[in-house]
Amino acid sequence: MAALAGWITAVISAGGYAGVAALMAVESACIPLPSEIVMPFAGYLTTTGRFSLWAVALAGAIGCNIGSTIAYAVGATGGRRAIDRFGYWVLLDHKDLDRAEWFFGRFGRAAVFIGRLLPVVRTFISFPAGMAWMPQLPFQLYSFAGSLAWCYALAFAGHQLGRRWESDPALRAYLRHADLAIALLLALGVAWFLRRRLGRQRS
Question: Which segments of the chain are extended strands (E)?
Fold first, then answer.
């Protein structure tokens, strides 16, 4: 997890707004790259003068729409056969698709907006929208609106943490002492996720 976080921060540092958009495009193309790392770090950089908060959120939302369009196209053209063929490589299986399809069936077009505000669901919601051939205009608008709200909220959290980091020595000390515990919990969580997901796919 630390290596993944390091790679994400390196891409953002080197690529700027384009790096943020590219990472969020990957996350929205049904590849579970955590936006919960991408956007808060970009938000933190707004406190250094590197980025603007709204511009970061906008770049993230544009990236989400690019990735969502790819996932939509795969769903529209490949459907469940695409999951059978390629899902293993992006840790996606039929249970993920069943969850996203149920959500889309329950809420209709609004599921694209609502799903963009929910962890996990947001990564896969474009796939059933493509399978249902949802019209492109509402799909793009709902996806962008939900993604903009999500990206802004995460970037704002990173911005606020960055401001307190510079002004609150107690917070810096606390987070430094908590680093090891947080890294251990994240590593255990990722290991559990991968073991469960890969085991489920093999079975």
Answer: none
Of 23, 35, 29, the closest CA to residue 130 belongs to 29
Q: How many CB atoms lie within 10 A of CB 164?
A: 14
- The distance between the two most distant Cα atoms of the chain, rounded to a whole number of Å, is 54
Backbone φ and ψ of 55, nearest 5°: -65, -35
* Rounded Cα gap, residues 183 and 198, in angstroms: 22
pLDDT in tens, 146-178: 999 999 999 998 888 877 765 666 655 555 554
CB of 59 closer than 8 Å to CB of 161 = no
Written as one string, the DSSP assignment of 132-168 is: TT--HHHHHHHHHHHHHHHHHHHHHHHHHHHHHHHH-
Rg of the chain, C-alpha, whole Å: 18
Q: State whether the Cα torsion 112-139-125-9 is positive or negative.
A: negative
Residues 6 or more apart whose CB falls under 8 angstroms from that of 53 comprise 43, 46, 152, 155, 156, 159
pLDDT over 90 at 139, yes or no:
yes
Q: What angle do CA 137, 138, 139 make, to 5 degrees?
A: 90
